Amino acid sequence: MQKEIGMKRHHEKLSIPLMITALCLGSLLITALWIIVDNGSQLRSQCQGFDRAIITQANTPVGSNIVYSAESKRTLMVTPGIFSTFIKENPFPQKKWDTCAVVGNSGILTNSSCGEMIDSAQFVIRCNLPSLGKGYEKHVGTKTDIVTANPTILVRKYGSLNGPRRPFVESLHIYGKSQLLLPAFAFGFCTALCLKAAYSISDIESPIRPTYFNPDYLRRLSNFWRSRGLHRGLPSTGLVMVNIALEHCANVHVYGFWPFSTHPFELNAVKNHYFDDKTGQWGMHSMPAEFNLLLQLHSQGVLRLHLGNCR
Ligand code: CDP
């Protein structure tokens, strides 16, 4: 009897033989690609995430022309006001971390018992203001060094920050003194929202430090993987963060990346998020292809993808 496993988003299914064929074909492509990548040296030299992934006062002076990452015709000249919200220097000290954990939001983390292992990493990266605590600690941990925030969350969950901003700033306390990484220059609508988030944090004096993705880095990264076979869509936040980790960490451990509806080993249903019931809206991203890429990087020993239970 042929078992079925959810492979494509949450509404499409692929049988195991089909999945294996797809993965094999993809693997041929991406194995070849990673050989071209040459263990990250091309990633470093072509994308320069080490000192360019994040906007700083050093790499983006007043008067620079920012070109938006998802709207290449939109530009913005850096004024002294905007410049004052940039962090001064590269937030990554000139050292490489030994072990980093990049935590995606897939429901595969539910009951995974991966919390301790995630928190044991020297540097922990989380995506899109995920829930922490509330009983999730055993499975996802609590430590955070970088957390990203998608502007659509600021719109949906915090009313575009048009009302009182304290609830938003207080909700960030669970991430401690981490860095809040915002895509302020992806689409035009992101800029005012992300600046409002940054101003709210400085007005209410929260320990979290707002920073912005450098759109120039996001464009380079997108072109880098596009020229190596990831043709469709823009890299997801999770994939961007894995790439940043690959430039900064000797050992990259990846958790919570499983954009499919069935557990790979236990075959039970898997939610899109470990903390809510929202289904995936991945119009701009090519999630099965991204997952395939992660799988290949895992089999090459470039990173360690955790899908099972950590017990
Ligand atoms: O909203 P967005 O697609 O950017 O991401 P998210 O749902 O907040 O999850 C953060 C990241 O985890 C995504 O960008 C994906 O890379 C990864 N993810 C995954 O691989 N599988 C899932 N079911 C959910 C998220």
UniProtKB/TrEMBL annotation:
It is found in: Golgi apparatus membrane. The chain crosses the membrane at residues 16-37. Belongs to the glycosyltransferase 29 family. This is ST8 alpha-N-acetyl-neuraminide alpha-2,8-sialyltransferase 6. It comes from Dissostichus mawsoni (Antarctic cod).
